[in-house]
Specification:
The protein is an all-alpha fold and 209 residues long. Helices cover 61% and strands 0% of the residues. The protein has 2 domains: 92 residues, Endonuclease Iii, domain 2 (Orthogonal Bundle), CATH 1.10.1670.10; 102 residues, Endonuclease III, domain 1 (Orthogonal Bundle), CATH 1.10.340. The chain binds iron/sulfur cluster.
């Protein structure tokens, strides 16, 4: 009952929730997601249209030196590491996967700079495979609401997959991120104006203390 109330409330609050990264195909989403680690989607969206105009495919990245790629992405945090990961990923995409982004988790996670969260983002948003990518917002909001009660990202993902119907995994990820950005802030959650406070585990715990 509580889970379905939370999900229907989030659906009503955020009918337009979707991936905030700009992309036109799985390759662009993969690179944008690597760039977005510990950086804002907004900062990534500022540079990726020009980046993909110049280098639209994995093969187009291969002639670049790390320093040349760094020059195109230097406004993004950790850009030196990310430039190396992107070049190594493009090399593998060309040599092992025929220049295409693979649509399975194991292959995606074999790429440099691609962990479980990035693989989930690509699987769900580019290939339509149900998945819940747990980032800092999803982790915080899910555990505050009581959709999960977990100390780790992996356990949070596992519990969310158990509590949320599979057909809603991908959109629930977008709902929880949007709620975290707009209302359930890390330091000062706006509980008094939050529609979910009647069913929020963290809110009830705080008001009972
Ligand atoms: S009531 Fe507060 S803690 Fe709970 S989801 Fe809303 S903003 Fe977050």
């Amino acid at each position: 009952m509580t889970v379905s109330f939370i999900l229907s409330s989030l659906a009503r609050l955020y009918p337009d929730a979707q991936c905030a990264l700009l992309f036109r195909n799985p390759f662009e989403l993969l690179i944008a997601t690597i760039l977005a680690a510990q950086a804002t989607d907004k900062s990534v969206n500022k540079i990726t249209p020009e980046l993909f105009r110049k280098y639209p495919t994995p093969a187009d990245f291969l002639p670049l030196s790390p320093e040349e790629l760094e020059a195109s992405i230097r406004t993004i945090g950790l850009y030196k590491n990310k430039a190396r990961h992107i070049l190594a990923t493009c090399t593998l995409l060309v040599s092992r996967f025929g220049g295409e982004v693979p649509a399975d988790r194991a292959s995606l996670e074999s790429l440099p700079g691609v962990g479980r969260k990035t693989a989930n983002v690509v699987l769900s948003n580019a290939f339509g495979v149900p998945a819940i990518a747990v980032d800092t917002h999803v982790f915080r909001v899910a555990n505050r609401l009581g959709l999960a009660q977990a100390a780790t990202v992996l356990e949070t993902e596992r519990q969310l997959m158990g509590n949320i119907p599979e057909e809603q995994w991908t959109i629930a990820h977008h709902w929880l991120i949007t709620h975290g950005r707009q209302v359930c802030h890390a330091r000062k959650p706006a509980c008094s104006s939050c529609d979910l406070h009647p069913v929020c585990a963290d809110y009830h715990k705080k008001t009972e203390e």
